[in-house]
Amino acid sequence: MEISDRYHSLNAVVYPWFDGQWQRVLKLFNDQRLPHALLLNGMPGIGKVRLAEAIAGYVMCHQPLNDKACGECRSCQLLNSSGHPDLYFLQPEAPGKAIKVDQVRQLTEFMHNTSQQGGYRVVLLEPAEAMNTSAANALLKTLEEPGRDTLLILITHQLGQVMPTIKSRCQRLDCHLPNSEVAANWLSAELEIDTDAARKLLNIVHGAPIAGLTFKKEGLQALRADFLTALRDLLRQKVTPLEVASQFSKEDIEQLLGWLHGLLADITRILMTQNNDMIRNVDMLKMLSGVAKHTTPEKVFTLSDFVQSECLGLQRRQNPNKQLLLERTLIDWTALVRS
Ligand SMILES: [Zn+2]
């Protein structure tokens, strides 16, 4: 990695639902009991990276004020502009790729240098589960002997995939999904939409507010609409699984499978409760109740398990043929309503 890649200006925000976590870290820091390594754990799309950035900004600030970084000292100025020489940001070289051992070795060198601005040196590493085994092993020594005034903040969206030896050397900070009321109010203010629309949006993104924001800003709404229309057309035999798979093969397959998994959960809800009020994807009610009428729980569970395990495979960076994977899934989707 080029040295310039690791510089990173901060975009620190403590979202209201993380106030408890924030206060806990401040207390540890103010009591001089802050550990050398924190592991921020929680589902994606809830703002953990911003929280990590806020923690970094706070411990590096020379004169924090009212539980916040001052925004004015030399350190805050560096962090808010081009980046700070004592902050190291480590991510995979491309989204979805592994964090490699060479990247961790460079990080270790940084950790053993002395601070350039005479304060804390902070590392943000995200996502922790992207470290392959040799990268994780290379980090272990640093976690054991981190040096004075250093803080490693590891962020994970998949705690189960982080090596136990890494987990056991970090203090865990669990970051929970905000309750639906808080999330809907926040998202409606942020997007200037009514709370009902915000609630619908949250249903699509499993309740994660920042994912809701991204969904809207990156125009994922259109992609979701196209994909859901394709799923409906498949059931009506207007298109074939092969056609749909090649139409969407360049998209984020994990995202598509995530949406499909949400639909399958809704079909299960209808099958189990005989009640349409429980479903999340309310805009697809007609299709979902139609499928529920013509399928069996066994078929839905089997497909649901398959989709989940394939998503896990994608997260583990196994490299399947994405178009084939999608086609296979879509064949099973159409088979839900065939006897
Ligand atoms: Zn400051």
From TrEMBL:
Q: What are the protein's UniProt keywords?
A: DNA replication, DNA-directed DNA polymerase, Nucleotidyltransferase, Transferase
Q: Which InterPro entries match?
A: DNA_pol3_clamp-load_cplx_C, DNA_pol_HolB, DNA_pol_III_delta_C, DNA_Rep/Repair_Clamp_Loader, P-loop_NTPase
Q: Where in the numbering of this chain does the DNA polymerase III delta subunit C-terminal domain appear? A: 222-334
What molecular function does GO assign, one term? DNA-directed DNA polymerase activity
Return the EC number.
Answer: 2.7.7.7
Q: Name one GO biological process term.
A: DNA-templated DNA replication
Q: Which Pfam families match?
A: DNA_pol3_delta2, DNApol3-delta_C
The keyword Iron belongs to this UniProt entry's keyword annotation: no
Q: Which reaction does it catalyse?
A: DNA(n) + a 2'-deoxyribonucleoside 5'-triphosphate = DNA(n+1) + diphosphate
Name a single GO cellular component.
Answer: DNA polymerase III complex
Q: Does the keyword Transferase apply?
A: yes
Give the protein's recorded name: DNA polymerase III subunit delta'
